[in-house]
Amino acid sequence: MHPWLLLLLPLHVLASKDRLLGVSPELATRYVSTKKGTVETWQCLDGSKTIDWSAVNDDFCDCADGSDEPGTGACPNSRFYCVNAGHVGSYIPSTRVRDGLCEPECCDGSDEPEGVCPNVCKEIGAEYRERLKADNKLRKTGSKIRSTYIAFAQKEKKRLEEEIAASAQEISTREKEVDRLKDLVERTESLSAAALEEMKSSPLYQSLKTHYTALKSLQREHKKHLEREKALGDILDQLRTGYNPNYQDMAVLEAVRGWEQLAGLPHINDVGKEEENADELGSDDVEDAATEDEEVLEEGMWTAMQLEYQLDDLLKTDYDGLLLEHDKHAGTPTSPTAILFNLSAYLPDTLVPQYESLRDQVVGWLALFGFTQSKSDSAADTSKAQKALNDAEHSLNLARKEKADKDQELARLFDSEWYGQEGEWKKLSGSCIEKEVGDYIYEVCLFDEARQKPLRGGQTFSLGKFAGWNTAESIEKGTPAYYSKQLYTLGAKCWNGPQRSVMLVMSCGLENALLSVAEPEKCEYEFKVTSPALCLAPSAEDIKREEL
Amino acid sequence: MRGFGSLLVLAAIPAALAVKSHDFKTCSQAGFCRRGRALSARAAENPSWRSPYSVDASSVALSPDQASFTAAIKSSIYPDVKFSLDVRIHDDGVVRVRMDEVDGLRKRYDEAASWALLEEPKVSQKVQWTVAKDSVKAVYGAKNDIEVKVAFEPLKVTLFRGGKEQVVLNNRGLLHMEHFRTKESVPKSKETVPVPEEGLDTEDGVQAVLGVHPRAAWFEGEQEDGWWEETFNSFTDPKPKGPESLSLDIDFPNHGHVYGIPQHATRLDLPTTTGENAHYTDPYRLFNADVFEYLADSTMSLYGSIPFMHAHSADSTVGIFNAIASDTWIDLGHPSPKSTTSHWISETGILDVFILPGPTPADIFTQYTRLTGTPALPAHWSLGYHQCRWNYVSSEDVRSVQKRFDEEDIPVDVFWLDIEYSEEHKYFIWDKRHFPDPVDMIKDVEAIGRKMVIIIDPHLKRTDNYPVYKQATELGILVKKGDGLTDYEGWCWSGSSAWVDYFHPGSWDWWKSLFKTEQHGDQWSWLESTVNTGIWNDMNEPAIFNGPEISMPRENIHYGGWEHRDLHNINGMLFANLTSQAVMARTDPPKRPFVLTRSFYAGSQRFGAMWTGDNLGTWEHMAVGVKMVLANNIAGFSFSGSDLGGFFGNPEPEMLVRWYAVAIFSPFMRAHAHIDTKRREPYLLDDPYKGIVRNMLRLRYSMLPVWYTAFREASVTGLPVLRPHFVAFPRDERGFSLDDQYFVGSSGLLVKPVTRKGVTEETVYLPAEDQVYYDYFNHNAYRSDAKGKEITVPAELHQIPVFVRGGSIVSTRERPRRSSPLMRRDPFTLRVALGKDSSARGELYLDDGETFSHQQGELVWREFVAEKPAKKSKGVRISSRNLATQKPTEAVDHVALATYDSGNAFAKAIADVRVEKIVVLGLPTKPSSVAVEGGKELQWTYTDGVAASDKKEGTASVLVIRDPKLAVASDWDILVKA
């Protein structure tokens, strides 16, 4: 007698009906044994092996595909079917079979040994149907709102089409006007432009122009520097107030201290004192500091204030006018004959076309820089005509742009990448929803921009501009899943981090609302949003499920 | 000036991407280290150098009843200063040498050992000291081959074995204990000269030249270098106690390899810092520090310090535990390939050195852990997969991470919360805006058998609306400034902060009271947590953003009037120690605590787990992480790991997958990531990476029985969970420098994780023995021989080179589950890897995994043995035996069970847990029968292949015994007949 006899384990006795434990109804027909005499066998579902029928659901994995143990969890990566009478049947992975836990997915407790999990399918099923009912109701109501959005889009379509037609009409009228004025300018110009050109060859005028160009360039560079300084100040302010994650880095500490010294800010460590001033100080303060530094000026030198406000006026000087005035002043012949002005008359015929094209170019260039408001008597006619032409061209351009905008809006209206195939999102374009979380108000204006606005003063940051819908590869354009996410990208840059961006995770709801804001990764936000635009009416099948 | 300032600011930004070396001292920037190295240089240049320290022969006093003696020590350069010597031999042969200044102006710090030691070691009552004219000697050991000799003139302590010098203290005469003196006691010249050394701050650059005692100058140097006040960066250390450093040379004249003294990002076989072709320029430093983006190859100090070193040669291993808690620098040299010198330079403290005689690495572990304690047996769940990130931002976030793991069926045991869970970084206090329902959240996690671990850092936000700070202030238990009166204030995550002085006994019960989850009287406690919640202690070096070397000013005052410099390296251990006690005290009876610490010291292994701090997501850091974890394992602290994926940076999928392979073979396995990184939870990976990682994690879970069994062994014997080659094969010289492959416990598993990019195969060294090693996955048999052998094996991304040494039986649980507690009823698989002699052996230890009931004998400890039933038989008998019955006294740590009751409650609870499969590798022939002895034939299949006893390589023969229906906790025999 060996002691092992006592040690044999009580098997989880599985009667033959239990060979079907965990098998779904549609697979039940495949769990049938083949009898050859007294031997009952069964083939793994993938056909890889034939085993004893008694080895099915005997808590030992024989088949490579795991199909011999639908009811025990002995095979990894297989599935267990819970019948869940009173609820809906469902699969659970084999990792959850006989793990001692009762999961709602298997409310009948069939995956655990008897007595471990009570059958709660009645309650779970009732709850489920209740939820389904509520959900269907929500979708039904929501879809009604959604249909008003669609109707709105239809109206928009009509409006846009009408307006586009009107615009087209207007454009055609304006084009004619431009043609007429062009003709007029050309004719006036041929009389006056040549004389002006002659005077412009004066070295004084040329030098003035060079000065003008140099000053203009200097101003551009100066502005660039100011912007850079402002941006740097912003970065450093952000670093200073949001230093924590990097403060253990002593370089950051030094940067903060350096900045505080430079900008005359109190040290951020002096908690309490800085609260009120910190936000207003910062970049403004830098400019003040700059002014203070440069107060002692040479006689006649411009102050920073003058530079800021008066330089533009200076640059708007009408040089042509001055040229003519200068002529009067210097006593040069004041009334040159029209022929003098008409330089082309002096030129050999072969050169005339070249001259004229050059002249047009120069005039165009002058127009661009606003030089053409001449007060000179002789050029007055040209200028007047030119101005009328410019105005007309401007109006034409505006009309064209307006039409282009409307064309684009019309094209987007039923574009699945924009307002949806039914145009259901058009209604919401530009409408803003917001939510207060912590120290900020988060706002998203749909199809436009998302923002973070501090409650206690300070800078509003752009969190990104609308960049499109769900771009995941597996998602098909125009499906409900596609419209469940909206991306806003290229917001204000984070210090030491990426440009801010927002993912809107959207679901059906009766209101357009921002429910929650999270920042799962630094400077990458997730907004949970509801909108009726996502509510699709429940199908007949959906409604039928309520009754099950 | 303005423009210049702006430029500086701009320049600082890109520099934020590297270690801030300038935040931390080099030896030349620390006065006492400069002095120590200068002393060593003078000694090397002076052929007639002789240590000024000697034993006063007339003072030797032997203890009448035990192996200890005391004596007075004199210094020839300071004849008026008195020193004492105390030498003891413990009952396990460990020698403890202590030296202190007597009747000095002040007292040297002498409490380091008391925090590190498990208990006061027992001094031998057998060993006898004998006093000779010039020395005191003792001879002992099993073979009477150990001799300890304390020579008088000059003082020199030598441990011999078999007549060979093993360890020599003060061999080169570098011992110097700077006695206490006052600034006024030394006359000063007014003249100042600049110190020529580079890298010093200007404040340091001018030193007073002095008329040092003329006899002392040859020894102490001409200058009072950094004696009184030192400035580093913008921090001035007033050094009110003046110079008090300790210099000690410890030589190993017959050992060519030294290991240990973690924590450094270096190779395991420690490279040299002195001598020709020194590998590093600066000494190894032990000074717990928060080093931002540390270097992957440097002797710079890191977060923890264990001043314990192995010296190893093919025929002997010895160890040194230098119980010192102050800033310490260690120079290493190999005057010859067969010998090692070490020079330990510490800022303060008495000399308190333990010499561990070995002679094998296993003996060293026993001796070391008898001193400082064995690793605590961890809660079983804590060996599972830990998922962390700075930060999971809300309770919704935590729930959704858990959901995603379950949807992808990827096992995980623990979710972690970093500092952002707390309101304004007031630890314990939830930020209710994002965590409105903390207890419900934790319970949702615990519903799947999982746990949460939440961070509690030592810096307390100084605000009265924070009960923890308020109470600590009222109790007067905060660390004080140098004046000893004012509470110290520093800057950390929480802004202006204070630090509890855990050396203050008044803090102990108070700290424990904070973790109670039920209200006790009026005491504030963490009601919004659960009794299963683990704790993460970070920043406990302590890290202080505006402190010198990102830590606490050295002149700060702790309980008992000790300066922070005296006990700095113990600070982190004490915090984790008390937290661990607090976690245990939440319930009665207690549950096993889980506390992760960043800072540690000798003895920290008793309190929880550690990780290697803020590593980078680079291949170099992945590789050095393996070495650092090995170094920790051989320094007694097995429960260790590195941040999976690298804390900083965004690892590409290949790197992340390889890192999972590294981590599943680390004792502690936690994925963690910095707040600036992209999310990288395994479910976010695309296939095939996701599937590979899922399989790797499932592999870890299947091997949890192996890990747990290895931890039982570690907790009882002190043998590490990860064993580098020199530990597993101490005589195999080819393995002495290996630190990228290792064995897991005594399981016979040999692992070499791939830590290089783009690799498709890997070279693995098989140790010098005539043995077969089986590929764990495809059962290919490789053979080594007496010289050792390198093999090249496939190592595609989904492959990990893992081998089972012939002669091992590995127990696994192969059913994937969502978390480890859900595996407790799952059956086992046994892999019998027959050795060259066709036998094999393995152990399996099980208990409830979370309480201390195992200390009452509620456990199962089995031995599986495969051997030939008869000498010439080609069959094999596989038996299951009860080890706990055979060796009850060795079953668990801390208690020696007198007997074992195999009918204990735990054993009963798993009585129906069975062995579902036995895989036998390397049988010579197809069996004619496989049956439970005396029972009927079992179901089995056999695939022909290479036999263990063959000389051939190739796929081994495989016998699979199908569901023998045997209980894992019962005795049984299976007979495989040829």
Which features does this protein show?
heterodimer; A: 548 residues; alpha+beta; Cation-dependent Mannose-6-phosphate Receptor, Chain A; 3 domains; eight-stranded mixed β-sheet; three-stranded antiparallel β-sheet; 11 helices; elongated; disordered N terminus; B: 978 residues; Immunoglobulin-like; TIM Barrel; ten-stranded antiparallel β-sheet; nine-stranded antiparallel β-sheet; 18 helices; 19% helix; 27% strand; globular
Continuous helix count of chain B: 18
Give the structural class of chain A: alpha+beta
Count of all domains of chain A: 3
CATH architecture verdict of one domain in chain B:
Sandwich
- Which whole number gives the mean pLDDT of chain B? 94
The total of helices of chain A stands at: 11
Task: Give the secondary structure arrangement, pairings included.
The complex is a heterodimer of chains A (548) and B (978).
Chain A: H1 4-7, E1 34-36, E2 39-43, E3 50-52, E4 79-82, E5 90-93, H2 121-200, H3 203-241, H4 250-263, H5 283-293, H6 304-315, H7 319-330, H8 338-341, H9 352-368, H10 377-413, E6 432-437, E7 440-445, E8 449-454, E9 461-469, E10 485-490, E11 501-508, E12 513-521, E13 524-531, H11 540-547
Helix pairs in contact in A: 2-10, 2-11, 3-4
Chain B: H1 2-12, H2 31-45, E1 53-55, E2 61-62, E3 68-75, E4 82-89, E5 95-102, H3 112-116, E6 129-131, E7 135-140, E8 146-151, E9 156-161, E10 164-169, E11 176-177, E12 188-194, H4 202-205, E13 206-210, H5 214-220, E14 230-232, E15 235-237, E16 246-252, E17 257-260, E18 284-286, E19 308-313, E20 316-322, E21 328-336, E22 339-346, E23 351-356, H6 361-372, E24 385-387, H7 395-407, E25 414-417, H8 438-446, E26 451-455, E27 459-461, H9 467-475, E28 490-492, E29 495-499, H10 505-514, E30 534-537, H11 564-584, E31 595-597, E32 609-611, H12 619-634, E33 640-641, E34 643-644, H13 653-664, E35 669-671, H14 689-702, H15 704-717, E36 722-723, H16 725-728, E37 742-744, E38 749-751, E39 761-766, E40 772-775, E41 780-783, E42 789-794, E43 802-805, E44 808-812, E45 828-833, E46 840-847, E47 859-867, E48 876-882, H17 883-886, H18 905-909, E49 914-921, E50 929-932, E51 939-943, E52 954-955, E53 958-967, E54 972-977
Parallel strand pairs in B: 24-25, 24-35, 25-26, 26-30, 30-31, 31-32, 32-33, 34-35, 45-49
Antiparallel strand pairs in B: 1-3, 2-3, 3-4, 4-5, 5-23, 6-7, 7-8, 8-9, 9-10, 10-16, 11-16, 12-13, 14-15, 16-22, 17-19, 18-21, 19-20, 20-23, 21-22, 27-29, 28-29, 36-37, 37-38, 38-43, 39-42, 40-41, 40-43, 41-52, 44-45, 46-47, 47-48, 48-54, 49-53, 50-54, 51-53
Helix pairs in contact in B: 7-8, 10-11, 13-14
